[in-house]
Amino acid sequence: MLKELKMKRLYLTAVAALAFCAMSTTSCDDMFEPAIENQRDITAMYDEPDFAQKLIGNAYIIVDHAFKTNPESDMATDDAVINDVSQNYSKMAIGGWKSDMNPVSVWDNCYNAIQYCNLLLDNCDQVKWSASDATLNSMFNDHFKAEAYALRGLFHYKLLQAHAGKVNGTLMGVPIHDKAESVEYLNQTRASFKECYDFIMADFNRALEILPYTFRALNDENDVNGVASKYLSNGKIANFGLYKRAFGEHHNGKINGKVVEALKSQLILLAASPAFEEGNTGATWQSAAEEVANVITKAKPSWDLDAKGYNWFENIGSYKATTEHSEVFWHTGSVQDNSSLEENNFPPSLYGKGQINPTQNLVDAFPMANGRPITDAASGYDPANPYDGRDNRLKAYIVCNGDSYAGGTVITRSDGTTLDALNKENKRSTRTGYYLKKLMNSNINLNPTSKNTGSHLVARIRYTELFLNFAEAANEAVGPQGVIGGHSAYEVIKKIRERAGITDVAYLDECAASKEAFRELIRNERRLELCFENKRFWDLRRWKVDLNVLNQTAKGVNITENADKSLNFNVIDVEIRDYKDYQYYGPIPYSERVKFSELVQNDSWQ
Fold first, then answer.
1. How many independent structural domains does the chain possess?
2. Has residue 26 been placed in a domain?
3. What are phi and psi of 292, to 5 degrees?
4. Least packed by Cβ within 10 Å: which of 39, 256, 351, 516?
5. For 557, phi and psi rounded to 5 degrees?
């Protein structure tokens, strides 16, 4: 998995280099031996709209690398470890995170994608999108520019999340790339955090002036819901037939106004968070709550949750990528039919590599079915039967000892006889006593004699994430029971827990007595619902939690069987976590600082 991502990154970097060469005023002959044949100038796009569209297509390829839709960064938190200690996420977590060894960096991918967007934006007005109709030409021009603005804002946002930081005690952002790179443009200083925030917000707002709320089937000129006001005349869609060609349902899967509004709400939440609040952006918990409340209300006016939403990856059914999904707000644009996730993470008895191992820390974070944490004397937790009577999400996300899964029974006891046993075989067996279940399709069979693939709906943003964003911001702004946009943090957390089978509200009510207690409950719910979705690594940092929380040792369980078949459960230390106090913020890549003298590093990073 990690090797594949690295190779894709190298490929995309090479493509970006070619795009740069195409627009640069200097020759690239000295960069490639032998010289590239038939090199085409970027102006070729003026008469070839397909060429222009491929630029934005390349940016879309990089979206999933910016979102890291494979469960990777969790392995550098207290939620998981990887069973191959030579991998970079393991090295990073135990003290090896450096500016030249940074597996969570998005620098190259995001700036490559921004270059594609800027090449399009700089040249879009000259493209003959329609040689026969000036109005249609203008609509297509608007459409592709709006996409480029939206994606450029997204990639700057991801750069801000991963690489913003303190310089001499002042919160700084990243270099803003507002035009295609040229030689004289490369050595840029970093913009302030506020300048980045304002630039991203402006790009999102430009996109929203053009993009429809969704790309959907349009009935007639009176079907104006979600259509930008620019294309309306007397309350109707002007030039209806042309508008359908430029903005109709055949564009479904591309970024739309609905997604841009959600990204805006995420940007505000980031800027309001403790690690970034001194950026002077004007973002507050109140504005974050209001923004995400508007996003949810437009998409789900009743604020209902998909009854099976926490287990959406096993409940795709006959879902098609061209339709709305009640749990997945934004996905990769297709239902993927493969088995790569299972090959990497199924237990070895099911012919997998068992790579990602959930920790005992995460298992302990799941409450009992009555909603109380296992440390609560009233919870009913039984240490001799630790997986009984728990929150339904535990067994939905994690394979525990003795579980039946994907047609087999998984025994992780250290005295087990299969390769599923604790530490049985390096790089294949679990290091924690647990295997990953979340995100995978249990109907897949990896047995070489009967191997099959299966469907996967890969989420970039889930509705549940938006609900949790609202709960966090609303609680900080007005407390657990305070109302913003007609809803409260208490109401949202109650819905999420009820969906997981927790109907007893006694503990919920106890936590609702104070903002502080409810904050911890919200954060734990976020940890559970969004585990293995590359959220916790960044959540812990934007919350600026105590350093000892960042450095919680990843733990596991050593299970052995007695003569009477009863089991012993002994918690073990698996992998240390060694983060420094400056590592709430990621570094600027060392390779970039070597090349560009104006690029200043974040404090304490080398």
1. 3
2. yes
3. -70, -30
4. 516
5. -135, 130
